[in-house]
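User: Second chain of the day. Same drill as before.
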Amino acid sequence: MAEHLQPPQAQDHQPGSEKEMAPRPDYIPRHPGADKLAGKVALITGGDSGIGRAVAVAMAREGANIAFVYLDETEDAAETEKLIAEEGREAISFAGDIGDEAFCKEVVAKTVERFRTLDILVNNAAEQHEVADLTELTAEQLERTFRTNVFGYFFMTKAALPHLGEGAAIVNTTSITAYNGHQTLLDYSATRGAIVSFTRSLSQRLMERGIRVNAVAPGPIWTPLIPASFKPEKVAEHGASAPMERPGQPNEVAPCYVFLASDDASYMSGQVLHPNGGSIVGS
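Assistant: Same format as last time:
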């Protein structure tokens, strides 16, 4: 099934730019909206590209206004804002580092100031860096990966909680690597495992407030993080090991987030969905 894989390519800056990918990922929702999120406001980290962009567009199609955060990919962010507007919804974006708690507080405050409410938080932004051996993993990289992938989720959730009421939803992005591991993504895999535990623990803590907390654990998905993380020859093999023998597209993952954020998932909290191309993973 090599025809379903992607050509070799590379980018030299994390988390990567969607406009530089060839072919571009599929992010447009496959079906008409059904107003599942009508009147809601969603805040999405890493919403400029990849899975985050697909989630932003899908939630906009379902009726939500969107605030999203990105690091420094201004062209991707502008395109995402345009896509949200084409769905008839409003968008606001923020450039900055979610590893900075003050920035997270500012994002939430400005989102609530603009839209007067906050109903959905999607913690999605992440970074990953290959190392061939644990001895090559520097303290700086370890701290940086955890600051983005774990601290950032804590900071944004902490800032959002005072504004989330009964019926609100938090959806965290984890990864198949939290369950299966990854021999060259040691620190990244550890952060994704931490987010599974964070999701389960926070779900228990917020149950009495009527706030649901769930997660999505994607498998190999065609996003800018892939050419920004791996060598070209490895990019060309991305997804080949999945049972479906191909990488997934962001619009094949986004419906999981819409479902978990909507009333369709009203009896689900502390759970993880697995759009991963058919891999069977433990609970």
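The first strand starts at residue 41 and ends at 45.

User: Great, on to the next one.
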